[in-house]
Every structure is written in C-alpha cells, then in structure tokens.
Amino acid sequence: MADSLRQRFLDICRFRRSGDLCLLAPWLNDFWMETPGVWVSQGAPAELADPRTLRDYFRFEHIRVLREIQTGLYMDKRLEVLGQTYVYAIPPIIPTYEIRMLGEDEHTLSLVNEGGQTVRIDKRDPQKMPMYLGHPVKDRATWQEYKKRFDPASPERFPADWEGYATRMNAKEEPLLLNVGSFFGFLREWMGLEPLLFALHDDPVLIEDMMDTLCEMEMACITKALGKVRVDGAMFWEDMAFKTGPLISPKMFRRFMMPRYRRITDLLRSKGVDVIFVDSDGNLTHLIPLWIESGINFFWPLECAAGNDAVALRKQYGRDAILGGNIDKRVLMKSRDAIREEVMAKIPYLLETSGYFPSVDHFVPPDVPFENFVYFINTMREVAGLPPIGSSKA
Amino acid sequence: MTWDASAISDAVQNGDDQLVVKLVKEALRQGTPATIILDSGLVPGIQRLGELFQDGEVFLPEVLISCRAMDRGVDEVKPFLSAAEVHKKGRVIIGTVEGDLHDIGKNIVRLMLECGGFEVIDLGVDVPVTSFVDAVKTHSPDILAMSALLTITMTNMPEVLAALEKAGLRDRVRVMIGGAPITREYADQIGAEGFAPDCASAVVEAERLVKA
Choosing among A127, A191, A203, A244, which should be mutated to test the B contact, i.e. which has the most B CBs within 10 A? Predict the structure, then answer.
C-alpha cells in the first residue's frame, strides 16, 4: 500500500525520503489571486480559473492548516468594495474590531479594518495591498486596551464543536499544521514597522509585555490543541527581513524573541511535534542560525532576489534545516532554457538530499506565463521520474 | 570642556539623541561654527553608521535611532545654517512606482539619504507616472529615485523615464532605481543612470550621480 501523504510529509521532513517530488498546497505552492484568470486568458482550460482545480491540475498535494484554531494570522478577512473583494489578514485578536468607514474620494476608501488598522483601499482594485494610515497600538496605554484581545480562553478561539472537530481532523490522511503565532510579525501588524523598531530601543518593557502576552496565549492554545488533535507541524509567521538582511539585529532577536520561541518549541517537541516552520520573506542569512538555535527547523520561501540559496543552505546546515521554495519566480518569466537551468541547478540535489519541498519563492505572480509554469512543473517531474502532466500516464 | 567632534560622532552612532543635543549646544556655546559641527561631528557619525549598516555590523533599529539623534543635532545647528548648507549634497525625489504599496525599502533609503545630507521629497507609494513627472517639474531635483518590490510593477519604471523624456525633463534629472527584483542589468536596459542593490549603497550611488 502506498504511503499516506502524511507519512510522505514526515519522512521528507526527517530526511528519510530521497527523490520524492512533493508539491504541497495551498501552503507553499499557491498563486496570486489574479494568476488563474490571466492563465485562462492565455489559453489554459477555463476550469483552471478555480484555484482548487488548478492545484489538482498540477498534481499538488493537499496539506491542511488548522485555521479554525485562532492562533495565527486570520487569512480570510474580506470586505466587499464595489463588487470586488478586499482580502486581508490580521493577528488572532478576539474580538476583532468593527469595520468603520472614515471617508472616500473618487478612487479611494478609508476605513478601520477588523484588525484595528486604518487603511486606504484603492476602489479600482481593492485586491491590491492597501495603504496603511494608522495602527491600533501606539504606546503602553493603547497596548493595555489591545492586549485584552489575546485571552486564550475566549470561546471563539477554538471551533464550537471542538471534540467533533478534533475527531474529524484526526481522521484525515493529510498532514495537519497548527499556527503557533509570531513575535515580530504580529507586533509590526499592530504597531507599524517604524514605531515598532523605535519601541524595541525606547521601551523594551513594552515589547517584552507584548511578546509575553503572545507567548502565554500560544502556549495555552498549543496545550489544548495538542491534547486532542494529532499535529504534524507547527507554523510561525514573521516576515522579518528585507532584501539584504533582518529588520532587527541578532542581539535584539536573542533578547526578545529567542527565549519566547524556545518556550514554544520546547513545548511542541515535548508533545512530539518536531517540524517547526517559519515563513519569512527577505534575506534570511542572519536569521536561520538564530531560528535553529530557537528550535525552529523549516524555512520558506527563501526568496532568490534577496540572495537566499537553498543548495548552499543545505550544505551549510545539513539536516538542521528543512527547506521550501527558492525557485526564482523571475526565471519563470524567461525562456525554457532558463527555467530548465534553474530547476537543474537546485531540484536534483535538493530532492536527493531530502528535507526539501519545492515551490516558487513565494506565490506565483500573474506575469509568469501559463506555458512556462507547465514547463517548470514538468521539468521537475522529469527529474523525479514522473510523466508530464497532461499525459495519459500522469 | 572644549567641544569634541568625535564625541558627537560617537553619540550619533550610539543613537543617543540627548547626548548629541547636549554636545552640540555646548559646541555652539563655545562659538564653534555650525558648519564645522555638522561636517566634523554629525555627518561623520552617520556616515560611519551607514558603513556599519552596509557591512552588517548594525541593523535597521540602530539606523533609525541614529538618524533620530542626527536629526536632533541638525535641529540645533539649523538656525545657524542656510538651507543649502544643511542639504548640500543635493535634492532627491523618491517614491514607489504605481501599483506598488511596499514602502519599507523606500523608507529606509529615504532615511539614509536624509542622514547622508540630501534633501529628500518623498512622494510615498503607488505614485502615478504623472506625479513623478510633475514633481520633477516643480522641484527640479538632482535625482529621481524609484522603488519597486514586485515584478509586475517594476515595468512602470521605464514608463516614468519615457514620460520624462516626452516632457523634455529627462536631461535635467538623473534617475536611480532599486527594490527586490531590480538589477543593474535592468537599470541599464531601461536607461536609468543609477542602481543601488541595497539601502546603504543608495547613498553612495546618489553621491556618485550628483558628482557625475
């Protein structure tokens, strides 16, 4: 009998499964919202406009993030604007803020969203990232108000039918991932980047209180979740680097983040969860060793434009680092030769050494032509000894 | 106590704004010319910090607090300087191109340029082509700096260049570009004179462009 996807996932994470092309989705392999529509206009089958059909077409394997447990980014906040949808993510606050319209002009709409952020949305394209005008936490006083929204015992934090939900999840054969929060990323979401960076220097007591609040909430929720649900991996979200390096110093990381990460990763490992993932854009050179020391061992998306190189990371960190992504999205806009060169420079080695899940270095943008993406997938399938998609053998 | 340029420089590097203000006031009280305090104390401090940032020895929070300390010091000497003496390196218009609302990189470059002695006019994010052109027309900058984080928005950069050309402004301003997907090859391809691979290099590149 073939191994379940869950077993494949865990075997790859534990470096016990060489050569297995495991394209996980919607986590890791996903598309910009506009991409499927653009591809259909380029001649892709009309049914591929549905992202789920698109994932099946490319033989992506389904991995489930337990989003019903409110410990990570709420990814599904939506607001209808003139028939289009503004989709956004917010930290796991309960209750969320009531949406409040502030004003509008010919092209924009200003409002306070459910995360308490004041944003300006482009009415012509609400799907576009909004302009941030203000954040809910400005100082100790506003934090005391915001802090009340991180009660781990809020009934809405877990599905109402918790026992039934746990039973249903445990019956699934796909890998299950639990969000375990964020220390830098959430603080930036509720303060804004520059105020956060100043506060790290000016008011470390405030920063520590915010991180402790998050840590306590996550610890309580992890304990409850793992008491009922078998979880295969845990996920942090940070986005704490830019093109050339981290947004904070290693010294600040060690002071503020590492002790709290350690408490969470120790708890996870004590309960058998040893695949601990972090999502961060930007150059991760300084951060990866710090995360490893913090007990985190899975890194994605490893953006090429920011200088990340999965082959070099594998050689440097060996089995201390499970890797995902690192296929240069910019190359997928070029020729077939360029795509083949990118695939052959990375995929054979990374699949052979195991501990690697292929994907583009973040979601696939609409300027990657459909034909190129098909060629990219098929080149990887060729490396793995699989028939091309669309063939009778696939 | 006689005034000490290196003490001011160190205080800027350490981000100690209160000490910077105290030292600058003392230097002014002693009759030290404001231009000397700026050129021998404040500017070397922030330049050294820029070098440390480029070398990965210090990080963004340290840059921010040093820029704040520098600003406080400049506020003290400003009443004794002309505008040309404060921003003597030149004027830069900066913005993120239309369709792109990512501003972290652009904001860091703005800070670094300001601390490096440039006057910076920040047009913000999602800046339409016409706004870049209007700003060049209005402010006559030495440099127009554009940022893009997305492959689908970087293509607006050549449109700005074409619009400058059409408006007869192209030879009056040097253009530099940057952002995650931007490369030197791309800058050459679209005809931008300047390119900075990272925030710290942006100051060096801007200095090169104004001297060119």
Answer: A244
